[in-house]
Specification:
The complex is a heterodimer.
Chain A lengths: L5 H16 L5 H23 L5 H16 L1
Chain B lengths: L2 E3 L2 E3 L2 H15 L4 E9 L12 E6 L2 E9 L2 H14 L8 E12 L3 E9 L1 H21 L17 E6 L4 H11 L8 E6 L5 H16 L6 E5 L14 H8 L5 E4 L8 H5 L2 E3 L2 H160 L2 H6 L4 E4 L2 E2 L11 E5 L4 E5 L10
Parallel strand pairs in B: 5-7, 8-9, 8-10, 10-11, 11-12
Antiparallel strand pairs in B: 1-2, 3-4, 3-6, 4-5, 6-7, 13-14, 13-15, 15-16
Helix pairs in contact in B: 4-8, 5-6
The chains are: A mainly alpha, B alpha/beta.
C-alpha cells in the first residue's frame, strides 16, 4: 500500500484544485503544491491502471477457511 | 362375479375398485375449480406426466392432502401459459387454482385429474409473497442496509456470482476487459445456478464463500443473462434478499430481464438491468474518478501557468514603475542641487565680499587705535621713569640720615639695658635659694623614704615596714604601726 491511499490522494488533490481555483495559492507555495499534486495524480492514475489482487492468495484463503470449517 | 365361500358373499379387489370407480363416475361426471397448494410438482421426465402433491394447510397443519395428475399434453399447455403470464414455469411450492375431475384408478387409487391451471391466481400469490418479503425486510430494518454501504471510489476488485458459460457473464467481461480507457479491473468467479429454486441456496452458498475472502474485494456482482426471463421468482425469496441486504460488501446486480424488479434487485446496493449495463456502471465509476483527475491536472497546469505569468507581468510593471520613479527622483534632486549650488556660490561670494569689507574697516580702525595707544603708553612710561628716579634719590637720602641717628643713640641705650638686667637676675637668684629642698626641710617639712625611695602616699607603705624620715639636719628610722587615711583625701 502507498502511504497515501488513492481515496485520500483524490480528496487532497481536489482540495489543491479548489485552492488554486480560488486563487488561494501564492507564488511562493506554488512549486510545493504543484509537486504534491503531481505526486497525488500519479497515485490515482496508478490505481486506475493496476490492481493488487492476487488470485492464488484468494484461492489459498478460500481453501484455508474451508479446511477450518471442516475440521 | 361374487363368490359364495362358507356362506359368505365375497368380492374380488378388482370388483370393489370397479364398483367404486363406477359410483364415483356416476356422481362426479363434471369438472370443478379447486384451490390448493402444490407442494411438489413431481414431473416425470420420461413420460412427461406430472403427479403433483396437493395439500391444504391451516397454518402449518395439513388439513387435506391428495394426489393430482397432469397428463403430458395438459402439462405442456399449462406450463406455456405459466411462462407467458408469470415468466415462471410450473414449480414446487406455489398456490394454484385448477380445473379438476375426480379420478379413480383401480391400481393408483383416488386422484384429482388436473385439466387446467389459472396462472393469474398463482401470479397474484407470487406477487403477494414478494410483497410479504419486502414488508418483512423493511420491518426488520434491513431493507436499505446494503445501499447504505459506502462503495469505494474505484470498485476495482469484483467477486462475481454467475455461471462461467453464461451469456451475461460474457457480456460483462467484454465491456470490462475491452474498455478503451485502460482501466484495470480484477474479478473472480464464484459459480452458482442463477434461476429456479436452486438459485436461492446456490447464491447464498457463494455469498458465504465470499464472506471468507472479503478483504480481497470491493464489491459483489450477481450477473445473470441469456437464460430468458423465466425462473426469476427466486430473487423475491426472503432468505436470499436478506442475505444480500446484510452482506458486508456492496452487492450490485445485473440479472437481465424486463419485468418488474425483484426484491433482490431492490435491496442490492445498485441494480443495472443487464450485465452489460452493470459493467458500464463500473466503468462509469472509473470515469467519475478519472475525469476529475484529468481536469485537476489541467486546472493545476493552467492555473499555475497563469499565476506565474500574472506574477511576471506584475513584476515587470513594478520594475518599470520603479525605474521611472527613480529617474524622476534623480532628476528632481539634480535640479535642486544645481539651484542650490548656484545659491551657495552667489551667497558665498556676497559673504566674502562683505567680510572682506568689514575686515578692511576693522584693520584701519585697529591701526589707528594701536598708534594712539602706543603714543599714550610711551608718555606714561616716560613720566613713570622720571618719578621713579626722583623717588629713589629721596629715599636713599632719608635712610642715610636715619642710620646716622641710630649710630649716635646705640651705646647709651646698651649700657642702660645691661644695668637693668643685672638687678633682675639678683632677685631671681634669691627666690631660687628659698625654694631649694634644704631650705624647705628647714622650714619643717620632711621626706619619708621606704627602701631609699621617697613615698608620696600611705598606700605605698604597709604595717611593719621600716621607713626613714629625712629632716634638715639628719634622719629618723621608724616602723609603721598604723595607717590612717585622711577622710577627705
Amino acid at each position: 500500500m502507498n502511504q497515501v491511499n488513492y481515496t485520500q490522494a483524490f480528496e487532497e488533490l481536489q482540495a489543491i484544485v479548489n485552492e488554486i481555483e480560488r486563487g488561494e495559492i501564492s507564488v511562493d507555495e506554488l512549486s510545493e503544491k504543484v509537486k504534491r499534486a503531481a505526486f497525488l495524480i500519479r497515485i490515482c492514475k496508478n490505481k486506475l491502471m493496476t490492481t493488487e489482487a492476487d488470485v492464488s492468495r484468494i484461492l489459498k484463503d478460500l481453501d484455508k477457511t474451508a479446511d477450518e470449517s471442516e475440521g | 362375479m361374487p363368490e359364495q365361500i362358507n356362506n359368505l358373499k365375497t368380492f374380488s379387489l378388482s370388483e370393489v375398485t370397479r364398483s367404486i370407480q363406477k359410483a364415483l363416475e356416476e356422481k362426479n361426471t363434471g369438472t370443478f375449480w379447486v384451490r390448493a397448494e402444490m407442494n411438489k410438482l413431481n414431473y416425470y421426465n420420461r413420460s412427461g406426466h406430472c403427479f403433483p402433491e396437493l395439500v391444504e394447510k391451516r397454518g402449518e397443519v395439513v388439513v387435506a392432502q391428495m394426489r393430482g395428475v397432469i397428463w403430458k399434453m395438459d402439462f405442456i399447455t399449462i406450463n406455456n401459459n405459466f411462462r407467458r403470464v408469470l415468466r415462471e414455469p410450473l414449480k414446487d411450492g406455489i398456490k394454484i387454482l385448477f380445473l379438476a375431475r375426480v379420478n379413480f384408478d383401480p391400481v393408483h387409487g383416488l386422484s384429482l385429474g388436473i385439466l387446467d391451471i389459472d396462472p393469474s391466481f398463482t401470479l397474484g400469490d407470487l406477487e403477494k409473497e414478494k410483497q410479504e418479503s419486502l414488508e418483512r425486510l423493511k420491518l426488520e430494518g434491513v431493507f436499505s442496509r446494503n445501499k447504505e454501504l459506502a462503495i469505494p471510489l474505484l470498485p476495482q476488485r469484483i467477486a462475481i456470482i454467475s455461471v462461467e458459460t453464461s451469456k451475461g457473464f460474457a457480456d460483462f467481461r467484454k465491456v470490462i476487459d475491452g474498455n478503451a480507457w485502460g482501466y484495470h479491473f480484477f474479478y473472480h468467479l464464484f459459480p452458482s445456478i442463477l434461476q429456479g429454486e436452486k438459485a436461492v441456496t446456490g447464491i447464498i452458498q457463494q455469498l458465504n464463500r465470499i464472506r471468507k475472502v472479503l478483504y480481497h474485494f470491493d464489491v459483489v456482482a450477481i450477473i445473470r443473462g441469456g437464460g430468458g426471463d423465466i425462473g426469476l421468482s427466486c430473487y423475491n425469496n426472503y432468505s436470499l434478499a436478506r442475505e444480500i441486504a446484510l452482506f458486508p460488501l456492496p452487492v450490485i446486480t445485473g440479472i437481465g430481464h424486463a419485468t418488474n424488479e425483484t426484491v433482490a434487485e431492490m435491496i442490492s446496493h445498485s441494480n443495472a438491468i443487464t450485465p452489460t449495463k452493470l459493467a458500464e456502471l463500473l466503468i462509469q465509476k472509473f470515469h467519475d474518478f478519472a475525469f476529475p483527475l484529468r481536469d485537476a491536472e489541467k486546472t493545476i497546469i493552467d492555473k499555475s501557468r497563469r499565476l506565474l505569468s500574472e506574477e511576471h507581468a506584475r513584476f515587470s510593471h513594478l520594475a518599470r514603475l520603479f525605474k521611472s520613479a527613480t529617474r524622476n527622483v534623480l532628476q528632481t534632486n539634480k535640479t535642486e542641487m544645481k539651484s542650490m549650488s548656484v545659491t551657495i556660490s552667489s551667497e558665498a561670494r556676497f559673504r566674502f565680499q562683505s567680510e572682506k569689507h568689514a575686515l578692511a574697516t576693522l584693520s584701519t580702525g585697529l591701526q589707528k587705535d594701536v598708534t594712539a595707544h602706543l603714543g599714550q603708553s610711551r608718555s606714561e612710561m616716560t613720566s613713570c621713569m622720571i618719578s621713579i628716579s626722583k623717588g629713589s634719590q629721596y629715599t636713599t637720602q632719608n635712610a642715610r640720615q636715619q642710620l646716622e641717628q641710630l649710630r649716635l643713640i646705640m651705646p647709651a641705650r646698651t649700657l642702660e639695658l645691661l644695668i637693668r638686667s643685672n638687678t633682675e637676675v639678683s632677685a631671681i637668684e634669691k627666690n631660687v635659694f628659698n625654694l631649694s629642698p634644704q631650705n624647705v626641710l628647714k622650714r619643717g617639712y620632711s621626706i619619708t623614704l621606704l627602701n631609699g625611695k621617697a613615698i608620696k602616699s600611705i598606700n605605698e607603705a604597709g604595717n611593719g615596714d621600716v621607713i626613714t624620715t629625712r629632716l634638715s639636719d639628719g634622719q629618723l628610722t621608724s616602723t609603721v604601726e598604723k595607717i590612717k587615711k585622711e577622710k577627705d583625701q
